[in-house]
């Protein structure tokens, strides 16, 4: 039997029971669409995180107190080390020619109030270098002045969200806020920028780092944010930081330096693994669809015994009968896979339309892999009923016993 005859035979068999065929196509297409949509979300998450890091630039280094090896785990973000990081440490790093900006940072939480409104927010104690290091855009006013960070001025810069919560549409510049037990005059308002350095800067207040020391009664920094003069200066900047801190801390290398490019690679690897995991979970539905093909075709074999018996009585070899049933499974798998690809791509487009800020992107490997898995699944599970049909005795099949 020629290939066209085999395909024509399979087409007739599939169209003879449209409900059964549609159920199988639906199962296969849902499985393929699930793989494409979930991998698109995983790939989109990876692109989104990469874009967030790139908005900060790739020249950032984060200096945390404490050496990773001293605890056997991650360095403490807000903890102490054998020698605390100080404002003087930050000032000493600015002597390096490889470093453009050094922003000392003290983090804490405190109530911020204006008139009868009050909110508990994160307070970010830093210096004028923070704006340049993180490229913070201003909506109104100006940032912390470029003076000695050891001066405890009663001024603050507030985020866009905090401004709306406390002032609504009123002007905030020049007004006095109460942060904890101290009063601060608003000199600037940040533009809405979203997430940055692991926190929402739109819902925070930034005050001079020396004022934060007084507010939270601490003399140690939570971290330092350093911006190198360029990507080519990252290694030199890291070496200068380690050497300077070691000199100032009596020979102890008691800090941990996190490079933004390393953080990006770590997140990229984690999210890539997540994408593969999502694809694997969605691929389970393809196996379920393959089982459905097997069950439906087993029923089909029992219903078409007379047809199979007639074919074998007319001289059709066992291999030919096997090919006929496998061709049906293959046609169902390919058709279901193609339909699923279109449904999955349409679903990804809809997600991108309703969430425009999320970069939904369908990887080509997901489309190819889902189609290949669909075909393989259909052939594997279709081979069982096909083998059963091929082994039928023609006499018994014609007598339908």
From TrEMBL:
Keywords: Cell membrane, Membrane, Transmembrane, Transmembrane helix. InterPro entries: ABC3_permease_C (IPR003838), MacB_PCD (IPR025857), Macrolide_Exporter_MacB (IPR050250). It is found in: Cell membrane. It is a multi-pass membrane protein. Its main location: membrane. It comes from Cocleimonas flava. Belongs to the ABC-4 integral membrane protein family. The chain crosses the membrane at residues 21-42, 276-301, 321-344, 364-384. This is Putative ABC transport system permease protein.
């Amino acid at each position: 039997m020629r290939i066209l005859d085999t395909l024509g035979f399979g087409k007739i068999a599939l169209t003879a029971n449209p409900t059964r065929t549609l159920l199988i196509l639906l199962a296969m297409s849902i499985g393929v669409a699930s793989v494409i949509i979930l991998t698109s979300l995983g790939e989109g998450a990876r692109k989104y995180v990469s874009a967030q890091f790139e908005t900060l630039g790739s020249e950032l280094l984060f200096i945390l107190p404490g050496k990773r090896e001293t605890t056997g785990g991650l360095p403490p973000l807000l903890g102490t080390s054998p020698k605390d990081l100080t404002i003087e440490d930050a000032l000493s790093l600015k002597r390096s020619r490889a470093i453009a900006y050094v922003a000392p940072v003290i983090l804490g939480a405190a109530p911020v109030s204006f008139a009868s409104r009050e909110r508990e927010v994160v307070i970010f104690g830093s210096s004028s270098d923070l704006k340049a290091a993180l490229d913070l855009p201003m909506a109104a006013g100006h940032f912390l002045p470029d003076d000695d960070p050891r001066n405890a001025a009663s001024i603050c810069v507030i985020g866009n969200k905090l401004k709306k919560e406390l002032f609504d549409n009123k002007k905030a510049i020049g007004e006095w806020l109460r942060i904890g037990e101290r009063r601060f005059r608003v000199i600037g308002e940040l533009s809405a920028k979203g997430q940055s350095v692991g926190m929402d800067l739109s819902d925070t207040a930034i005050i001079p780092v020396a004022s934060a020391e007084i507010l939270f009664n601490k003399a140690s920094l939570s971290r330092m944010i350093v911006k190198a003069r360029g990507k080519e200066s990252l290694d030199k900047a890291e070496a200068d930081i380690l050497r300077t801190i070691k000199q100032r801390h009596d020979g102890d290398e008691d800090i941990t330096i996190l490079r933004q490019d390393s953080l990006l690679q770590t997140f990229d690897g984690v999210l890539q693994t997540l994408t593969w995991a999502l694809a694997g979970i969605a691929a389970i539905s393809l196996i379920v669809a393959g089982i459905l093909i097997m069950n439906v075709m087993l029923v089909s074999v029992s219903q078409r015994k007379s047809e199979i018996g007639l074919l074998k009585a007319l001289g059709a070899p066992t291999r030919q009968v096997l090919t006929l049933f496998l061709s049906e499974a293959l046609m169902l798998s390919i058709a279901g896979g193609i339909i699923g690809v279109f449904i999955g791509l349409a679903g990804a487009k809809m997600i991108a339309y309703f969430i425009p800020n999320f970069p939904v992107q369908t990887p080509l490997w997901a489309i190819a892999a889902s189609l290949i898995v669909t075909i393989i699944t259909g052939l594997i599970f279709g081979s069982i009923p096909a083998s059963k049909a091929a082994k039928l005795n023609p006499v018994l099949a014609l007598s339908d016993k």
